[in-house]
Design goal:
Largest sheet of chain A: none
Number of strands of chain A: 0
Low-confidence stretches of chain A: none
Radius of gyration of chain A: 20 Å
Helix content of chain B: over 70%
Distance between the termini of chain B: 35 Å
Oligomer: heterodimer
Radius of gyration of chain B: 14 Å
Structural class of chain A: mainly alpha
Distance between the termini of chain A: 38 Å
Number of helices of chain B: 3
Structural class of chain B: mainly alpha
Strand content of chain B: under 5%
Number of strands of chain B: 0
Strand content of chain A: under 5%
Largest sheet of chain B: none
Shape of chain B: elongated
Low-confidence stretches of chain B: none
Number of helices of chain A: 10
Order of helices and strands of chain B: HHH
Chain lengths: 253, 63
């Protein structure tokens, strides 16, 4: 049960973040120079690997036992509840839906308006845009994957889910950008938020000395409760706001 | 720094502060309870209820 939930959570989180990175790299590659886009993406992957090597061992080595569970739980709650918050607002019509294809089109249009790369020279602006996009999305992936893998028994399912997501995104990226259009991203991000929040609640409580009544099976109960709370919030927000964005969301947009 | 803050803490302050308060209250209750049965059995659901309050605060739902 825990294995499947962890693998699904890791796979969805990694795939969705990588799709957003892919949208930026494709936009740069199609508008400017593919070599610069790929070089920027490769440099960002290297940067993310360095971050992963630095963050992972530190997180596991510095805190052990119950404190580790609380730290891991709080980090999962920070990521999970933020994803779930955005998911609820999107499903309630209070925030624009997540759409990597729309981001790809907007990025492409913005790049097309800029100065074209000089002939015979390396396209540094394209490199930087590609690097920045992949690095920022990649760091979020590294943080989520590290936290999921840091908890006891979390390494194997996290690796399985992450590798599956990586292969999926690379495969779809090679096929072309059309698959970006078909993804129900808002719903998938909401599910990732639910899964991460469930794990966060579970491990944080364990770290604070709680003995869950049904052991790992309690994960399903916690998941069901968060599902109920978030769906109730969707209904309240959808009914009260009439699709009007809140002040916070307007500021964020 | 703003990007890093947004990456780790999210777009609002209400949610991370709410999570900190919820986990803080749960930690105090855990320390008071020690190894008492009521905390071991119900502590997880108490934490969940506190986190649910933080989540609602983060959404900005008002009456």
């Amino acid at each position: 049960m825990t294995f499947v939930l962890t693998a699904v959570g890791a796979a969805l989180a990694v795939a969705l973040e990588l799709f957003e990175a892919l949208a930026i790299v494709l936009a740069v590659a199609l508008t400017r120079r593919p070599a610069a886009a790929l070089a920027g993406a490769a440099a960002a992957v290297l940067g993310c690997a360095v971050v992963g090597v630095l963050v992972g061992p530190v997180l596991v080595a510095q805190v052990a036992g119950d404190p580790l569970r609380v730290v891991v739980g709080v980090l999962l709650l920070l990521f999970g509840m933020e994803w779930m918050r955005k998911g609820v607002l999107r499903l309630a019509g209070r925030r624009a839906r997540s759409d990597s294809y729309a981001e790809f089109v907007a990025e492409r249009e913005a790049l097309a308006e800029g100065e074209p790369p000089a002939a015979g020279r390396f396209d540094w602006p394209g490199f930087v845009i590609s690097f920045k996009g992949v690095f920022l999305e990649g760091v979020e992936v590294i943080l989520i994957v590290t936290v999921l893998a840091a908890r006891p028994g979390g390494l194997a399912p996290t690796v399985v889910g992450s590798v599956a997501a990586l292969l999926l995104v690379i495969g779809l990226g090679l096929v072309l950008h059309r698959p970006l259009r078909r993804l129900p991203e808002s719903e998938l991000k909401y599910v990732v938020g639910l899964v991460l929040t469930t794990f966060g609640t579970f491990f944080c409580a364990e770290g604070l000395g709680v003995d869950w009544p049904l052991a790992d099976a309690s994960l399903l109960i916690v998941l069901a409760i968060w599902l109920g709370i978030s769906q109730a919030a969707v209904r309240v927000l959808a009914g009260a706001g009439g699709g009007r964005p809140s002040r916070v969301e307007e500021a964020a947009a | 720094m703003r990007t890093v803050r947004k990456l780790v803490l999210g777009e609002t302050w209400a949610l991370p502060i709410g999570i900190a308060i919820a986990v803080g209250i749960a930690g105090i209750l855990s320390a008071i309870a020690g190894s008492a049965d009521w905390w071991e059995d119900a502590g997880g659901f108490i934490l969940l209820a506190l986190l649910a309050c933080a989540f609602v605060a983060g959404l900005g739902i008002r009456r």
